[in-house]
UniProtKB/TrEMBL annotation:
Its cofactor is heme. It is found in: Membrane. Pfam families: p450. One of its GO terms (cellular component) is membrane. It comes from the Eukaryota. Belongs to the cytochrome P450 family. Keywords: Heme, Iron, Membrane, Metal-binding, Monooxygenase, Oxidoreductase, Transmembrane, Transmembrane helix. Heme binds at residue 396. This is Cytochrome P450. InterPro entries: Cyt_P450, Cyt_P450_CS, Cyt_P450_E_grp-I, Cyt_P450_sf. It comes from Lobosporangium transversale.
Length: 450
């Protein structure tokens, strides 16, 4: 694969030109469709958009999933990190990445399959394996893949069908639960009462099977393996890196902690005012206004954390690899600069040319966590100056769920711990500049607030 580096205005030109394809480039590098087709029975034609549609549809349920994610994340952090038994002592986590990924695998199993199915240890192991499959595909692949290597990879997937094995395990665990759901739904319909519908992704995908073209439960579970595994490995990478940034820039911890408390105080006061108004008007106070949930990490509370959002956007901007996001030319293209990209050749973006420019400030080479706090540029806001999630119609639809999960993760960390330290200080620079999906091997010390 011939490779041309593009910079500055040429990047936008390539991103908005339909003659260039990012998905075809990813396929040529990772052979990812061969992995998908080793398990799914439908949507096997290359170029279908079912995975993207599922991601977008899942994002719509974020308000429903958020309380569950918050509860599971808080429990997961308590189990994975805990607190030092000594006052002022530190709790060392020697391997943050697998700890975080294990927590996220459990979260994804619960919101995609429901708590009953997620209780099965085989299910948790299977989602973990699915996340490992995808991580290997994106880490071990080289831009310059030989035809022989690509042939071997595809042959291996056809012979061993790893995704099919994942789907079969999940389907076996899900079958009795799905049958019981159908029984209860039929019983409710016969009795003329409302059925208490499970609010997990599995139920939505089963109800919309014809829309997505799924053939059976195994097929549904293959797609769940892809989605849950992808979210787990992608979010675990960035969440781990966030820990290193909080340790490398300790002044961020208190600022973020103060914002979290101020936001939760404001939400709590507003909810109490609403309850008082309800009492004055004689209205019943429903479960949604239960004081026990006043300080939850809700969608509304997370949305108000503008300094947290700025911190995340700056972590992405500062950390992102300088050469990334490959596009394949589907026909001969002449760029405005006069450079000719021939059909079958690839271009790779020099993101430094847009992420480290005066547009971000004269100090764009430095890490400035509050750079975007007053600029109304959120961590999900894409554009020619921020290529973390792509641009235009090809932008990553999973960014909304990822960013909300990362904001929640960061809010819990700064709320529970007053200071973080990298176990090996000499690895600090390597930690904050680590390659995507390739975290370094040093631990983190967590100093508890209480």
């Amino acid at each position: 694969m011939n490779l041309t580096v593009i910079s500055g205005p040429q990047i936008r030109e390539v991103f908005t030109n339909p003659a260039f394809s990012a998905s075809d480039a990813i396929e040529s590098i990772t052979r990812i469709s061969s992995y998908f087709n080793s398990g799914r029975k439908s949507n096997r034609n290359y170029g279908n958009h079912v995975i993207q549609d599922l991601v977008r549809d899942t994002t719509r349920y974020l308000p429903v999933f958020t309380p569950k994610i918050a509860t599971l994340m808080e429990k997961g952090l308590e189990k994975g990190i805990g607190h030092s038994p000594e006052k002022g002592g530190a709790q060392l986590v020697e391997a943050p990445f697998p700890m975080i990924r294990n927590m996220l695998v459990n979260i994804m199993a619960n919101i995609f399959l429901g708590p009953e199915i997620a209780k099965n240890p085989k299910v948790i192991d299977t989602i973990w394996d699915a996340s490992s499959d995808l991580r290997r595909a994106f880490i071990n692949s080289s831009i310059r893949v030989s035809k022989w290597r690509a042939f071997l990879d595809r042959t291996h997937l056809r012979l061993f069908q790893p995704l099919m094995k994942r789907a079969q395990i999940l389907a076996e665990a899900a079958t009795p639960v799905v049958l019981e759901r159908r029984r209860l739904e039929a019983l409710a319909n016969e009795s003329g009462v409302a059925w208490e519908r499970p609010d997990d992704v599995l139920q939505s995908m089963l109800e919309d099977s014809s829309k997505y073209g799924f053939e059976d439960l195994e097929d549904v579970c293959a797609h769940i393996s892809i989605l849950a595994g992808a979210y787990a490995f992608a979010m675990a990478d960035t969440a781990t890196n966030i820990l290193y940034f909080l340790a490398a820039f300790p002044e961020c911890v208190e600022k973020l902690y103060e914002e979290v408390q101020q936001v939760l105080d404001a939400v709590q006061a507003e909810r109490e005012q609403t309850r008082q108004e309800y009492r004055m008007e004689g209205k019943p106070i429903d479960e949604a206004l239960d004081p026990a949930h006043d300080r939850d990490m809700s969608v509304e509370a997370l949305k108000r954390m503008v300094y947290m959002d700025s911190f995340l956007r700056e972590v992405f901007r500062y950390r992102i690899e300088h050469l990334r996001i490959v596009h394949l030319a589907m026909e001969d293209v002449t760029l405005s600069s006069g450079i000719v990209i021939s059909k079958g050749s690839a271009v790779i973006s020099n993101t430094r040319s847009v992420h480290h420019t005066p547009e971000h400030g004269d100090d764009s080479a430095e890490f400035r966590p509050w750079r975007y706090a007053e600029k109304h540029k959120t961590a999900t806001k894409i554009g020619p100056d921020y290529l973390v999630f792509g641009m235009g119609r090809r932008a990553c639809p999973a960014r909304f769920m990822n960013i909300q999960g990362l904001k929640m993760f960061s809010a819990f960390i700064v709320s529970k711990y007053s200071k973080l330290e990298i176990q090996d200080p000499s690895r600090t620079k390597a930690a904050i500049h680590s390659r995507l999906n390739d975290p370094i091997d040093t631990g983190v010390n967590f100093y508890s607030r209480a």
